[in-house]
Amino acid sequence: MEVIDEQLSLYLEDRNDRSYEGFSDFFCECLDNLGISTADFVRKCRIERTYVYQILKGMRNPGREKIIIMCIAAGLSFTMTQKALVIAKAGILYYRDDRDAVIIYAVNHGLDLVDTNALLEKNGFTELN
Length: 129
Prior knowledge:
By secondary structure, the protein is mainly α.
């Protein structure tokens, strides 16, 4: 297929720049790029240690909530969080959903997991767990 529009061509190239085996492959690359050790990350994300290691090794597939928690704990941007959700086939954060909108706000403002959960609770939503 020949793409005539230059912007579309660049988008398609960017979209296909790296194929990932799965969420763990993508996420481990993110941690490496950010210079975060696995041990430090496990402490930050407040998910059961064994479960996190199983996710990172590709032995378990996390649900949407765990992916969001992991992305916030790693300090990923909104764009990278969305990409993680897409790779995991878990459903992206949707701004028209009120709870998702609060999470988007937290991610865009660099809030950590504790502050994100406090913001969710303050606005009457269930915390990420």
